[in-house]
Amino acid sequence: MSIFDGLKKKNDKEEKSYGWDAITNEFDKIYPNQKNPKHYGTLISWNLGGNDPLRGISIYDGGDYWHFVTYGLTELYEKESENKEVSGYGMEFTFKLKKDKYDNEEAEIKCICGILQSIARITFTNGEIFKPYEFIYTGQTTGIDANGRSNITGFITIPDTNAKPLNTPNGKMEFVELIGVTDNELKTLLNKELKVQELYEKLNSDITDYNRKSII
Q: Model confidence at 24, in pLDDT bands (50, 70, 90)?
């Protein structure tokens, strides 16, 4: 991935970016003073054999955290699918990473972009749809941070607390926010000791903090 050049072109032809603009417009409402957020785009698109299914990821400055939003799980340009009610897979991912004294903040941002691409790849290859109040558990015990030192090893999902579901010209879509959780917390969900919504209420925050301890 590389810094995106801001152009929304496909096959060298300028196309109407209905879906892309709908996402950007929603985040413009949340962050009205950030018209040019940090953005990482894909050099070789999935359609052309690239490894990254998302067309891009924007990162907004939320003050105490970085707010990520994906572009690519919905139909970003003109309507192509037969389902007129839903845009693409009907979702885009978001994530809020707490700002901290990282060894390399840019590496942490790129690491999250890579994780979001990996999760999106599951959808593109298997057709799996991620909904709010689910969890993502792989059995991984090393941290999801760039150095693998954090207690955060997986995710739960909620409706993004800032970005609202949209009715775009290409159909409906929602923003599914990922929250980082620890291995112990994931195991309580796996063992059905807690429901995702109950764990989220116990966390009392949707911002992922790499340095927090497990609440279980």
A: very high
The per-residue b/e assignment along 99-123, b for 16 or more CB within 10 angstroms, e otherwise, is eeebeeeeebbebbbbbbbebbeeb
| Rg of the chain (C-alpha set) | 17
Residue with tokens 């990922």: 178
Nearest to 136 by CA among 116, 114, 163: 116
- For Cα atoms 146, 150, 155, give the angle at the middle one, nearest 5 degrees: 90
- Angle at alpha carbon of residue 129, lines to 123 and 130, rounded to 5°: 105
At residue 204 the predicted structure's pLDDT band, cuts being 50, 70 and 90, is very high
pTM: 0.91
**Average of per-residue pLDDT values in the chain:** 92
Please name the amino acid found at residue 149. R
* Selection from 39, 84, 70 nearest residue 176 by Cα: 70
Measuring CA to CA, which residue among 112, 68, 70 is closest to residue 210?
A: 112
For the chain, the straight-line distance linking the first and the last C-alpha, in angstroms and rounded, comes to: 36
Rounded to whole angstroms, the maximal C-alpha distance in the chain is: 53
Give DSSP secondary structure letters for 5-69.
-S--EETTEE---HHHHHHHHHHHHHSTT-SS-EEEE-SS-GGGT-S---SEEEEEE-SSEEEEE
Helices 183-190 & 196-203 angle (0-180, nearest 10): 150
